[in-house]
Amino acid sequence: MKLSFNVTTCGDDCGFLADENETRRQLEGFDGLELQVIDEPAEGLIDPKLVTGLHMTCIPCWYALWTGDEKALTDEFGDLATAEQYYGGLTRSALLDKFRRDLFYAEQFGAEYLVFHIAESRVIESFTEDYLHTDEEICAASADMLNVLFEGRTDGPLLLLENLWQPGMNLRRPEITRDMLAAVRYPSKGIMLDTGHLMNTNTGLRSQEEAVSYIHAVLDAHEQTGFDLCAAARGIHLNASVSGDFAEQIKKNPPVLSGSYQERTSQMFFHVFERDQHRPFTVPGVKELVQRIAPDYLTAELITLGLEDRREKNSQQLAALR
Fold first, then answer.
1. Domains: count for the chain
2. What is the 3-state secondary structure (H, E, C) of 33-62?
């Protein structure tokens, strides 16, 4: 099992890579990095030898563009011009180009795996959870998009499909998990099981201890249908998010969103970071849970503020595995 932690190319998040000593310090106990390319990385900053995996672009709301639903686009963005600015176009190619950029960087850095979110959520749905689309609809469109993106490819990085808590592959229903993985024709594939995202599917959780039991129950439920989720989960994003009380309160009293689409999206992201906490998952039982799943790749995917905070939280997460 290869251990990594998450880094983006935003701002100063990966600036430590310019300092050989700090890079060595941050990587102590880890085999490499799971990189997400947002801003263009500075020339020579990122050593390909450090990149184990690459997290592909996260686009919360994409279904209307992929299906050509102009009414839904207008409802979400206010007008088509705003949607066009957001996506860089109003065609499927505009969406695919964002992911093709990820494939380019994966090849440039020699990433062993890619991570792709299987989910969809409009801005207001992040608060109300009153979703327009079903798991089946989002998974079918996701498989369609991935099959176009990877058309003609028979080998390359391992493609890991990540669960979230919105409509899509959220691991609530084993048949959806099974069918989603089967629908992707690219042969080198598996699941990236995000423990925090899975916790977010159960707002009744009130502790990390309860979360460990819940994740085991989800694994059990898949096994009982004949689908081995442990075998399919080639990777784990290890983190904790016990935020059910917060989520339930927001759902009862969602905010009134206003302003431009960019302003409403900013409100949504601030909310998501409170809901999806990405804290170290450290209670007894975490090590045994990871051993049960036995992934090829494990990423400490944590929200951190600065180098010292990152080092401390990553160290806490590593300690839980010993």
1. 1
2. EEEECCCCCCCCCCCHHHEEEEECCCCCCC
pTM of the model: 0.98
Contact assessment for residue 37 and residue 99, using Cβ atoms and an 8 Å cutoff: no
| Cβ pair 14, 109 in contact under 8 A | no
Convert the pLDDT of each residue in 75-117 to its tens digit: 999 999 999 999 999 999 999 999 999 999 999 999 999 999 9
Beta carbons within 10 angstroms of residue 157's beta carbon: 19
Pick the closest to residue 302 from 101, 38, 33 (CA basis). 33
Indicate the burial class of 273 (C-beta count within 10 angstroms; 0-12, 13-18, 19 or more). Answer: exposed
* Cα(221)–Cα(42) distance, integer angstroms: 45
Q: What domain range is 193 assigned to?
A: 42-300
- pLDDT tens-digit series, residues 166-178: 999 999 999 999 9
Question: Could you tell me if residue 215 is inside a domain?
Answer: yes
Q: Give the span between the Cα atoms of 234 and 52, in whole angstroms.
A: 13
**For the residues of 218-257, what is the DSSP string, one character each?**
HHHHHHHTT--HHHH--EEEE-B---HHHHHHHHHS----
d(CA 236, CA 301): 9
For residue 277, being part of any structural domain is answered with: yes
